[in-house]
Design a protein that fits this description.
The protein has about 240 residues and is an alpha/beta fold. It contains ten helices and six strands.
Protein backbone atom coordinates (compact mmCIF):
# COMPACT_ATOMS: atom_id res chain seq x y z
CA UNK A 1 0.00 0.00 0.00
CA UNK A 2 1.55 3.28 -1.13
CA UNK A 3 1.32 6.36 1.03
CA UNK A 4 1.50 9.60 -0.97
CA UNK A 5 0.82 12.06 1.80
CA UNK A 6 0.24 12.23 5.53
CA UNK A 7 -1.14 14.92 7.79
CA UNK A 8 -0.62 14.17 11.46
CA UNK A 9 -3.89 13.46 13.23
CA UNK A 10 -4.90 15.23 16.42
CA UNK A 11 -4.69 13.08 19.54
CA UNK A 12 -7.67 10.78 19.66
CA UNK A 13 -8.92 11.79 16.20
CA UNK A 14 -8.95 9.54 13.12
CA UNK A 15 -6.34 10.42 10.52
CA UNK A 16 -7.58 12.05 7.32
CA UNK A 17 -5.85 13.88 4.50
CA UNK A 18 -4.19 10.69 3.25
CA UNK A 19 -3.84 9.23 -0.23
CA UNK A 20 -3.38 5.46 -0.37
CA UNK A 21 -3.25 2.73 -3.01
CA UNK A 22 -5.65 -0.16 -2.46
CA UNK A 23 -5.94 -3.57 -4.11
CA UNK A 24 -8.36 -6.48 -4.19
CA UNK A 25 -6.70 -7.86 -1.06
CA UNK A 26 -6.70 -4.58 0.92
CA UNK A 27 -9.98 -3.00 -0.19
CA UNK A 28 -12.06 -4.47 2.63
CA UNK A 29 -9.77 -3.24 5.39
CA UNK A 30 -8.58 0.04 3.91
CA UNK A 31 -11.93 1.17 2.46
CA UNK A 32 -14.86 -0.71 3.99
CA UNK A 33 -13.47 -0.92 7.52
CA UNK A 34 -11.58 2.40 7.48
CA UNK A 35 -14.78 4.23 6.45
CA UNK A 36 -16.20 3.45 9.90
CA UNK A 37 -13.59 5.87 11.29
CA UNK A 38 -13.50 8.47 8.54
CA UNK A 39 -14.99 9.08 5.09
CA UNK A 40 -13.09 7.26 2.33
CA UNK A 41 -13.29 8.51 -1.26
CA UNK A 42 -12.35 5.82 -3.80
CA UNK A 43 -10.89 6.71 -7.19
CA UNK A 44 -11.35 3.82 -9.64
CA UNK A 45 -8.85 4.45 -12.45
CA UNK A 46 -6.37 2.89 -14.91
CA UNK A 47 -3.11 4.02 -16.47
CA UNK A 48 -4.52 3.99 -20.03
CA UNK A 49 -7.50 6.20 -19.08
CA UNK A 50 -6.76 9.82 -20.04
CA UNK A 51 -9.71 11.34 -18.12
CA UNK A 52 -8.38 9.47 -15.06
CA UNK A 53 -5.07 11.30 -15.43
CA UNK A 54 -6.97 14.59 -15.32
CA UNK A 55 -9.23 13.73 -12.39
CA UNK A 56 -6.65 11.95 -10.24
CA UNK A 57 -4.52 15.00 -9.33
CA UNK A 58 -7.66 17.00 -8.50
CA UNK A 59 -8.77 14.34 -6.02
CA UNK A 60 -5.28 14.05 -4.52
CA UNK A 61 -4.99 17.82 -4.04
CA UNK A 62 -8.34 17.89 -2.21
CA UNK A 63 -7.34 14.96 0.01
CA UNK A 64 -4.08 16.62 0.97
CA UNK A 65 -5.53 20.00 1.87
CA UNK A 66 -4.89 20.84 5.55
CA UNK A 67 -8.64 20.96 6.27
CA UNK A 68 -9.36 17.69 4.44
CA UNK A 69 -11.85 15.41 6.21
CA UNK A 70 -11.49 12.28 4.08
CA UNK A 71 -9.00 9.69 2.93
CA UNK A 72 -8.53 9.10 -0.79
CA UNK A 73 -8.10 5.46 -1.83
CA UNK A 74 -6.93 4.81 -5.40
CA UNK A 75 -7.74 1.47 -7.03
CA UNK A 76 -6.24 0.57 -10.42
CA UNK A 77 -9.07 -1.35 -12.09
CA UNK A 78 -6.70 -2.88 -14.64
CA UNK A 79 -5.03 -4.97 -11.94
CA UNK A 80 -7.88 -5.24 -9.44
CA UNK A 81 -10.81 -6.38 -11.54
CA UNK A 82 -12.48 -8.39 -8.77
CA UNK A 83 -13.19 -5.29 -6.69
CA UNK A 84 -14.16 -3.32 -9.78
CA UNK A 85 -16.77 -5.98 -10.59
CA UNK A 86 -18.01 -6.11 -7.00
CA UNK A 87 -18.43 -2.33 -7.00
CA UNK A 88 -20.18 -2.48 -10.39
CA UNK A 89 -17.67 -0.23 -12.13
CA UNK A 90 -18.69 -0.06 -15.80
CA UNK A 91 -16.67 2.96 -16.90
CA UNK A 92 -13.81 5.01 -15.49
CA UNK A 93 -12.92 7.28 -13.89
CA UNK A 94 -15.47 6.40 -11.25
CA UNK A 95 -15.54 7.93 -7.78
CA UNK A 96 -17.42 6.64 -4.72
CA UNK A 97 -17.64 8.04 -1.20
CA UNK A 98 -17.81 5.38 1.53
CA UNK A 99 -19.04 6.00 5.07
CA UNK A 100 -19.65 3.26 7.63
CA UNK A 101 -18.84 0.69 4.95
CA UNK A 102 -21.47 1.93 2.51
CA UNK A 103 -21.53 4.12 -0.61
CA UNK A 104 -23.25 7.42 0.17
CA UNK A 105 -22.60 9.14 -3.18
CA UNK A 106 -20.75 8.61 -6.46
CA UNK A 107 -20.08 9.98 -9.93
CA UNK A 108 -18.52 8.82 -13.19
CA UNK A 109 -16.30 10.73 -15.62
CA UNK A 110 -13.90 13.62 -15.26
CA UNK A 111 -15.10 16.84 -13.63
CA UNK A 112 -13.48 20.24 -13.04
CA UNK A 113 -12.03 20.92 -9.61
CA UNK A 114 -14.90 23.12 -8.45
CA UNK A 115 -17.52 20.46 -9.16
CA UNK A 116 -15.41 17.75 -7.53
CA UNK A 117 -15.03 19.83 -4.39
CA UNK A 118 -18.79 20.45 -4.35
CA UNK A 119 -19.39 16.70 -4.66
CA UNK A 120 -17.06 15.96 -1.74
CA UNK A 121 -18.64 18.59 0.50
CA UNK A 122 -22.14 17.36 -0.36
CA UNK A 123 -21.13 13.76 0.39
CA UNK A 124 -19.69 14.73 3.76
CA UNK A 125 -22.87 16.60 4.71
CA UNK A 126 -25.14 13.60 4.10
CA UNK A 127 -26.60 11.70 7.03
CA UNK A 128 -24.29 9.00 8.28
CA UNK A 129 -25.67 5.52 7.49
CA UNK A 130 -25.97 3.07 10.35
CA UNK A 131 -23.14 0.50 10.51
CA UNK A 132 -24.03 -2.96 9.26
CA UNK A 133 -21.95 -4.67 11.95
CA UNK A 134 -24.35 -6.73 14.02
CA UNK A 135 -24.48 -6.05 17.74
CA UNK A 136 -27.02 -6.23 20.50
CA UNK A 137 -29.22 -3.18 21.09
CA UNK A 138 -29.09 -4.01 24.81
CA UNK A 139 -26.23 -1.96 26.34
CA UNK A 140 -25.15 -4.69 28.76
CA UNK A 141 -25.03 -7.40 26.10
CA UNK A 142 -23.35 -5.07 23.61
CA UNK A 143 -20.60 -4.34 26.14
CA UNK A 144 -20.07 -8.08 26.61
CA UNK A 145 -19.79 -8.50 22.83
CA UNK A 146 -17.27 -5.67 22.57
CA UNK A 147 -15.17 -7.16 25.38
CA UNK A 148 -15.13 -10.50 23.60
CA UNK A 149 -13.84 -8.85 20.44
CA UNK A 150 -11.13 -7.04 22.42
CA UNK A 151 -10.16 -10.30 24.14
CA UNK A 152 -9.55 -11.77 20.68
CA UNK A 153 -7.65 -8.71 19.45
CA UNK A 154 -10.37 -7.68 17.00
CA UNK A 155 -10.05 -3.90 17.11
CA UNK A 156 -12.36 -3.08 14.20
CA UNK A 157 -15.35 -5.06 15.46
CA UNK A 158 -14.93 -3.76 19.02
CA UNK A 159 -14.52 -0.19 17.75
CA UNK A 160 -17.78 -0.27 15.77
CA UNK A 161 -19.76 -1.64 18.74
CA UNK A 162 -18.26 0.85 21.21
CA UNK A 163 -18.31 3.91 18.97
CA UNK A 164 -22.03 3.46 18.28
CA UNK A 165 -22.98 2.55 21.82
CA UNK A 166 -26.62 2.92 22.96
CA UNK A 167 -27.49 5.01 25.98
CA UNK A 168 -27.46 3.23 29.30
CA UNK A 169 -25.53 2.68 32.50
CA UNK A 170 -22.80 0.86 30.58
CA UNK A 171 -22.05 3.80 28.27
CA UNK A 172 -19.29 5.20 30.49
CA UNK A 173 -17.56 1.82 30.51
CA UNK A 174 -17.85 1.64 26.74
CA UNK A 175 -16.16 5.03 26.43
CA UNK A 176 -13.27 3.82 28.58
CA UNK A 177 -12.75 0.78 26.33
CA UNK A 178 -13.05 2.71 23.07
CA UNK A 179 -9.43 4.04 23.01
CA UNK A 180 -8.09 0.47 23.31
CA UNK A 181 -10.27 -0.69 20.42
CA UNK A 182 -9.23 2.38 18.44
CA UNK A 183 -5.52 1.69 18.94
CA UNK A 184 -5.86 -1.93 17.79
CA UNK A 185 -7.93 -0.78 14.81
CA UNK A 186 -5.33 1.88 13.93
CA UNK A 187 -2.59 -0.74 14.06
CA UNK A 188 -4.52 -2.98 11.68
CA UNK A 189 -5.00 -0.04 9.31
CA UNK A 190 -1.30 0.87 9.47
CA UNK A 191 -2.08 4.31 10.87
CA UNK A 192 0.41 4.01 13.74
CA UNK A 193 4.12 3.16 13.39
CA UNK A 194 4.47 -0.57 14.05
CA UNK A 195 7.94 -0.14 15.49
CA UNK A 196 6.63 2.10 18.25
CA UNK A 197 3.36 0.44 19.12
CA UNK A 198 3.49 -3.21 18.05
CA UNK A 199 4.68 -4.40 21.48
CA UNK A 200 1.82 -2.51 23.12
CA UNK A 201 -0.74 -3.85 20.64
CA UNK A 202 0.57 -7.40 20.99
CA UNK A 203 0.31 -7.22 24.78
CA UNK A 204 -3.30 -6.09 24.42
CA UNK A 205 -4.09 -8.87 21.94
CA UNK A 206 -2.65 -11.45 24.34
CA UNK A 207 -4.43 -9.87 27.32
CA UNK A 208 -1.13 -9.17 29.06
CA UNK A 209 -2.41 -5.94 30.54
CA UNK A 210 0.42 -5.35 33.01
CA UNK A 211 2.84 -5.57 30.09
CA UNK A 212 0.66 -3.14 28.14
CA UNK A 213 0.84 -0.63 30.99
CA UNK A 214 4.63 -0.99 31.03
CA UNK A 215 4.81 -0.41 27.28
CA UNK A 216 2.69 2.72 27.65
CA UNK A 217 4.95 4.07 30.36
CA UNK A 218 7.99 3.47 28.14
CA UNK A 219 6.72 5.70 25.32
CA UNK A 220 8.84 8.72 24.48
CA UNK A 221 7.32 12.16 25.06
CA UNK A 222 7.01 12.71 21.29
CA UNK A 223 5.14 9.41 20.90
CA UNK A 224 2.51 10.56 23.38
CA UNK A 225 1.37 13.15 20.84
CA UNK A 226 0.13 10.28 18.67
CA UNK A 227 -1.91 8.42 21.26
CA UNK A 228 -3.91 9.44 24.33
CA UNK A 229 -1.90 7.68 27.03
CA UNK A 230 -4.24 8.60 29.88
CA UNK A 231 -7.30 7.31 28.00
CA UNK A 232 -5.48 4.07 27.15
CA UNK A 233 -4.47 3.59 30.78
CA UNK A 234 -8.12 3.91 31.83
CA UNK A 235 -9.18 1.46 29.13
CA UNK A 236 -6.56 -1.10 30.10
CA UNK A 237 -7.57 -0.76 33.77
CA UNK A 238 -11.20 -1.43 32.77
CA UNK A 239 -10.12 -4.57 30.92
CA UNK A 240 -8.10 -5.75 33.91
CA UNK A 241 -11.03 -5.20 36.25
CA UNK A 242 -13.33 -7.30 34.08
CA UNK A 243 -11.13 -10.41 33.97
Amino acid sequence: MGLFGFLKKDKGEPRSGVVIDVTDSTFKRQVIQRSHKMPVLVDFWATWCRPCQVLGPILEDLALEPQSKFTLAKLNTEYNQQTARQQQIQSIPAVKMFRNGQVVDDFTGARPGGLVKRFVNKSLEKSLPAPKISGSSDPGQRLVQARRHLAKGRGFEAYVLLDNFPEGAEQAEAQRLLPVASLLFDMDLGDLPAGKYEALAEALRKRKYDTAVTELAALEVSDKDEVDVEALELGIAALKDSR
